[in-house]
Design the sequence.
C-alpha cells in the first residue's frame, strides 16, 4: 500500500508557529531581498498548512461525534453495533459537502469494537456527480484478500502513537482507487483505542490548493512528506509521487526549522504542524 | 472495494437465443445492453464463485435494481439471462421470488468450464496485458519505493507461503500485484491491475493447487521485491514479467488439454 506516514504533533490542534522566521538561530539576512524570500516561503508553508488544517478540523469533528456516540451507547449498558454508527451520517454528509478538499470521510472501527460485526467502516464518499454514497466493502475474509485494514498507515499510525497523522500520498485501492492523502486521528472509548476518524483528500484536489501557493515562489518548488515522497509540485523535475532523495526531511520536521542545503540554494521549510516540507530553490545566487 | 475475484467474463451466453434474439440485442440501446450484461456478469460470477449461496433468495426486483443502480427493466432482462443459464430460478406467488440455483458441478469443474470459455489466444493476450502491467509497475516501484513501501508486499508473500487452499492463494497472488502497482504510485496501473485480477483470479485457482507451484510463485515474488528494494528497475520488470508469463503459460497449457 506504500503509504507514507508522518506524525503530527498533537492529537487535535496544530502547534504554535514553529517556522524559522521567528527562530533564534535564524540565519542573518545576507543580501537584499532575502528577508522577502523568507517571508514568501513562510507564507506558502502556512497556506498549505491552513488548507490541511481545515481537513483536520473535519477529522476532529468526526472524532468527537464518534467518541460521544460510543460513550452514550456504552453508558446505556450495551455494546455498540454497526447500526449505531448510522447516527454519524448527518455529520459526515455535512463535512463532505462543506469541505472542498474532502472526498471521503468517516469512522473506521477497531476490529472487535462492534458486537455484531468483526470489522466496520462507516465511510462516505462524494461522487463526481456531487452526490454522497456509502463505501460498501466486502469484509468477509473467505471472499476477499482486502479485509484487514489495520495494516494501512492511516489506521496503524493513530493507533500506535495516539496522535493524528497524515498518510500518503498513496494509491488508495481499498476505498477510492485514487491517489490520495488520508488524514486521521484516534478515537477512544474509556481510554482505549476504538478506531480512527479520517478524511481523504485526493491528490489532484490537493494540487489545486497547493499549486497557486507554490507558484508564488520565485524558484521551482515542491512539497514532500517525511520520507521525501512528493505530494504536490510546481517543478517539472520533481513530480507528485516521485521520491526526492538526499535530504533528511524527518529531521527538518523534528527540528521544525527552515534550513539551507549547503551550496545548492535549496531551502527546506517545514509546514508548521504538518508532516510536509516545502522544498524550493531560489534563482541562482 | 469491488468484488475482486469475480470474473467478468460472460461470453458463454453470447451467440445463444437465435437470430431474433441477436437482432434484438443488436438494436437494443447500447447503454442499457451493457448494463444488462454487467448485471448478468456480476450476479452470475458471484453465484459461480460461491459468493451467493445455493438456494439464497435474492432481494426483490425493485430493491435489487436500486442496489445495483439499474432500472427494473434492465434487471428483469438480466434475471432472464441468468435463468437461461440455470443460475437463478424464479418462483411466482406467495413466498416467491428469485433464488440462487447452484449448478450441480464441483468448483474445480466449474472453473475448468470457465477456462474453456477462453481461447488459448485470449489467454495469451491476457498474459501479455498482465505482464505489461506488472512489469511496468515493478520498474516504476523500483524507482519510487522507499523502505517502508515494501511492507505490504512482504506480508503478501508470507501469506502466500502459508495460504491453505487454491482460492486463498489466488487472492493473495492477485493482491501482491495490486500492491506492486500501488508501490509504483500509479492509480491507473492499480485500477487496471484490480480489473485484470477480477478476470484472472478465479482461473489462477486452477494452477495454484500444488504446493510446489505455490512455493515457486512465492520465490518469484520475493525476487521481485529484492529487485525493487535494490532500486533495479530493469531487473524488477523482467522478474515480474517472468512471474506472470509463467502463470499464464500454465493456464494456456491446461486450457489446451480441456
Sequence:
Amino acid at each position: 500500500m506504500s503509504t507514507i506516514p508522518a506524525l503530527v504533533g498533537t492529537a487535535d490542534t496544530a502547534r504554535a508557529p514553529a517556522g524559522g522566521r521567528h527562530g533564534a538561530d535564524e540565519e542573518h539576512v545576507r543580501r537584499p531581498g532575502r528577508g522577502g524570500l523568507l517571508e514568501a516561503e513562510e507564507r506558502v508553508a502556512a497556506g498549505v498548512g491552513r488548507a490541511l488544517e481545515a481537513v483536520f478540523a473535519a477529522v476532529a469533528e468526526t472524532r468527537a461525534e464518534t467518541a460521544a456516540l460510543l460513550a452514550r451507547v456504552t453508558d446505556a449498558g450495551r455494546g455498540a453495533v454497526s447500526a449505531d454508527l448510522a447516527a454519524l451520517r448527518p455529520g459526515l454528509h455535512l463535512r463532505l459537502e462543506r469541505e472542498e478538499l474532502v472526498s471521503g470521510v468517516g469512522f473506521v472501527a477497531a476490529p472487535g469494537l462492534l458486537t455484531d460485526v468483526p470489522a466496520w467502516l462507516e465511510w462516505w464518499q462524494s461522487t463526481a456527480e456531487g452526490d454522497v454514497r456509502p463505501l460498501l466493502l466486502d469484509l468477509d475474509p473467505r471472499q476477499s484478500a482486502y479485509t484487514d485494514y489495520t495494516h494501512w498507515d492511516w489506521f496503524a499510525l493513530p493507533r500506535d502513537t495516539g496522535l493524528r497523522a497524515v498518510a500518503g500520498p498513496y494509491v488508495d485501492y481499498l476505498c477510492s482507487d485514487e491517489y490520495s492523502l488520508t488524514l486521521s486521528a484516534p478515537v477512544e472509548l474509556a481510554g482505549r483505542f476504538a478506531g480512527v476518524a479520517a478524511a481523504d483528500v485526493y491528490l489532484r484536489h490537493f494540487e489545486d490548493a497547493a499549486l497557486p501557493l507554490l507558484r508564488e515562489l520565485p524558484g521551482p518548488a515542491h512539497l514532500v512528506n517525511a520520507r521525501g515522497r512528493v505530494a504536490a509540485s510546481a517543478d517539472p523535475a520533481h513530480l507528485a509521487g516521485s521520491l526526492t532523495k538526499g535530504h533528511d526531511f524527518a529531521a527538518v520536521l523534528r527540528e521544525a526549522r527552515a534550513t539551507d542545503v549547503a551550496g545548492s540554494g535549496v531551502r527546506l521549510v517545514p509546514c508548521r504542524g504538518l508532516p510536509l516540507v516545502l522544498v524550493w530553490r531560489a534563482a541562482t545566487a | 472495494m469491488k468484488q475482486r475475484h469475480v470474473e467478468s467474463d460472460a461470453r458463454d451466453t453470447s451467440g445463444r437465443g437465435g437470430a431474433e434474439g441477436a437482432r434484438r440485442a443488436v438494436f437494443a440501446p447500447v447503454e442499457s445492453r451493457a448494463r444488462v450484461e454487467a448485471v448478468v456478469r456480476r450476479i452470475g460470477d458471484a453465484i459461480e464463485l460461491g459468493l451467493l449461496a445455493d438456494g439464497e433468495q435474492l432481494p426483490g426486483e425493485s430493491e435489487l435494481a436500486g442496489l445495483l443502480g439499474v432500472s427494473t427493466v434492465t434487471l428483469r432482462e438480466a434475471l432472464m439471462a441468468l435463468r437461461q443459464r440455470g443460475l437463478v430460478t424464479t418462483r411466482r406467488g406467495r413466498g416467491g421470488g428469485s433464488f440462487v440455483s447452484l449448478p450441480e458441478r464441483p468448483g474445480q469443474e466449474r472453473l475448468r468450464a470457465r477456462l474453456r470459455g477462453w481461447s488459448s489466444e485470449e489467454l495469451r493476450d491476457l498474459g501479455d496485458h498482465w505482464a505489461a502491467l506488472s512489469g511496468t509497475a515493478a520498474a516504476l516501484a523500483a524507482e519510487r519505493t522507499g523502505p517502508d513501501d515494501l511492507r505490504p508486499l512482504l506480508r503478501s508473500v508470507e501469506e502466500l507461503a502459508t495460504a491453505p487452499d487454491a482460492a486463498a492463494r489466488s487472492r493473495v497472488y492477485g493482491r501482491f500485484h495490486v500492491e506492486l502497482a500501488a508501490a509504483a504510485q500509479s492509480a491507473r496501473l492499480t485500477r487496471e491491475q484490480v480489473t485484470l485480477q477480477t478476470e484472472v483470479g478465479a482461473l489462477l485457482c486452477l494452477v495454484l493447487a500444488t504446493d510446489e507451484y505455490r512455493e515457486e510463485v512465492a520465490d518469484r515474488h520475493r525476487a521481485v521485491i529484492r529487485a525493487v528494494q535494490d532500486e533495479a528497475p530493469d531487473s524488477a520488470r523482467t522478474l515480474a514479467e517472468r512471474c506472470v508469463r509463467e502463470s499464464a503459460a500454465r493456464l494456456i497449457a491446461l486450457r489446451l488439454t480441456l
Summary: Chain A has five helices and twelve strands. The radius of gyration of chain A is 20 Å. The interface with chain B takes residues 1-2, 4-5, 137-138, 143-146, 151, 169-171, 173-175, 177-179, 227-229, 241-243 of chain A (CB under 8 Å).
